[in-house]
Amino acid sequence: MKKVLWILMAATICVACAKKAEKTDTVSAEEPVVEEVVVEETIAEEPIIEEAAEETLAEEVVVEEVTEEVAEEVVVEEAVVEEPVEEPVLKFGLDVQPEYPGGLTEAMKVVAANTKYPAEAKANGWEGKVICTLIVEKDGSVSSVKVTRSSGYTVLDDEAVRAFSTLTNWAPGQKDGKPVRAQVMLPLQFKL
């Protein structure tokens, strides 16, 4: 870049000198030689070259800064977030099935005692059977209660999910002598 500036300055000086030489050759003895004009042209052109050089340097600096920022953004995008791996839920092939204390009969008694027939369903005479699945965790707690087969009425389905969520303290299912997460399917009949 500096070489280009020096070449431009040298060219400007050469042009100025050539103009001065032309004027000197064609000037008669009577006409005064105006050297100030040539000097003024040279002085006027040099700052323009320097300003252009400064602008070019400023552009190069800005380009370098932008390149560095882009490189930083790429590094941020390459970061990988690892999600925790959830253990599988077994439906079949268990050595020991999950068991509610007192068996399924006792579980259904607890659900029946905790079920509140929705007022809207009573008023409209809605009845139906809801089948839900739930996951018995390794510690015997219940999670992920979902409707597998709907009664056709949202209020009855929601009440079944709430009632099955009250079942706690299961003996977890086992596979190879170790407690595992296991899925259980249970029905609930709503009848007036």
Reading off the top of the CATH hierarchy, the class of the largest domain is best stated as Alpha Beta
Mean pLDDT: 74
* Main beta sheet: 3 strands, antiparallel
Order of strands across the biggest sheet?
2-1-5
Radius of gyration: 45 Å
- Unreliable parts: 25-49, 56-67
Number-wise, the strands total: 5
Terminus-to-terminus distance: 93 Å
- SSE topology string: HHHHEEHEEE
Helix content: 40-55%
Task: Output the CATH topology of the largest domain.
Answer: Fusion Protein Consisting Of Minor Coat Protein, Glycine Rich Linker, Tola, And A His Tag, Chain: A, Domain 2
User: Helical element count?
Assistant: 5
| Beta-strand content bin | 15-25%
Number of domains: 2
Q: So what's the overall shape? A: flat
- CATH-derived architecture of the largest domain: 2-Layer Sandwich
* SS content category: alpha+beta
What would you note in describing this structure?
With 192 residues, the protein is of the alpha+beta class. The protein folds into 2 domains: 76 residues, no CATH class; 88 residues, Fusion Protein Consisting Of Minor Coat Protein, Glycine Rich Linker, Tola, And A His Tag, Chain: A, Domain 2 (2-Layer Sandwich). It is built from 5 helices and 5 strands, in the order ααααββαβββ. The strands form 2 sheets. Strands 2-1-5 form a 3-stranded antiparallel β-sheet, with helices on one face. A hairpin with a 5-residue loop joins β1 and β2. The protein is flat and about 110 Å long. It starts with a helix and ends with a strand. 14% of the residues are buried.
Quick summary:
The protein has helices at 2-26, 35-77, 103-114, 119-124, 154-164, and strands at 128-136, 142-149, 173-175, 178-180, 182-190.
